[in-house]
Specification:
This protein has about 200 residues and is of the alpha+beta class. It has two domains: about 40 residues, GTP cyclohydrolase I, N-terminal domain (GTP Cyclohydrolase I, Chain A, domain 1); about 140 residues, 2-Layer Sandwich (GTP Cyclohydrolase I, domain 2). Strands 5-2-3-6-7 form a five-stranded mixed beta sheet, with helices on both faces. Strands 1-4 form a two-stranded antiparallel ribbon. Helix 1 crosses helix 2 and helix 3 packs across helix 4.
């Protein structure tokens, strides 16, 4: 389903009037269409299949380089992401750290940020986002374990309410062998200070 830009523009115009602004004043005349374009980008993941980037897998045992089969986790750190909090429609942004312990299949590393991008481009809460990323990887690749750590700054915390400008939220989603904290301790150490 495509974002209805025309409807968003009309609603933004109504919103500007509701806060006491004049949507026809020079600085605001293009705001409704600009917000509509931004929302089309921010919410482009609605209705998209987050597992699609993981469709092209490589067999660990029969792949192009079976002698280099991973014996441990595959980790991609510091995947930058941005999303929109569904509670206040304010942005949150941060870093995702993803690790998985391959079973029979691996995926190109570029596929993992694409999964994050699709799932983050929806109205979200950070806790669910991490769980959805872990579930998508778990279902698509059938690994022995998955670990997703998100560290993000939320504008609903930094710009309103308690206004804590440097506060971040860290969430952990784990599947398989990484459900046990001791099993994921090495990965958390590899992420480094401030990453988890």
């Amino acid at each position: 389903m495509a974002v209805d830009r025309e409807r968003i523009a009309l609603l933004v115009r109504d919103l500007l009037e509701a806060i006491g602004e004049d949507p026809d004043r020079p600085g605001l005349t293009q705001t409704p269409s600009r917000v509509a374009d931004a929302y089309a980008e921010f919410f482009s993941g609605v209705g998209q299949d987050a597992a699609e980037p993981l469709q092209h897998t490589i067999s660990v045992s029969r792949g192009p380089a079976p002698e280099t089969s991973p014996s441990g986790a595959v980790m991609l750190r510091d995947i930058l992401f941005r999303s929109t909090c569904e509670h206040h429609l304010l942005p949150f942004r941060g870093r995702a750290h993803i690790a998985y312990l391959p079973g029979e299949r691996v995926v190109g590393l570029g596929a993992l940020p694409k999964v994050v991008d699709v799932l983050a481009a929806r109205p979200q809460v950070q806790e669910r986002l991490g769980e959805q990323i872990a579930d998508t990887i778990d279902h698509a690749l059938a690994p022995r374990g998955v670990l997703v750590i998100l560290d993000a700054s939320h504008e609903c915390v930094t710009m309103r309410g308690g206004r804590q400008p440097v506060a971040t939220t860290v969430t952990v989603a784990a599947r398989g062998e990484y459900v046990e904290p001791a099993a994921r301790a090495e990965l958390v150490a590899l992420i480094g200070p401030g990453g988890a």
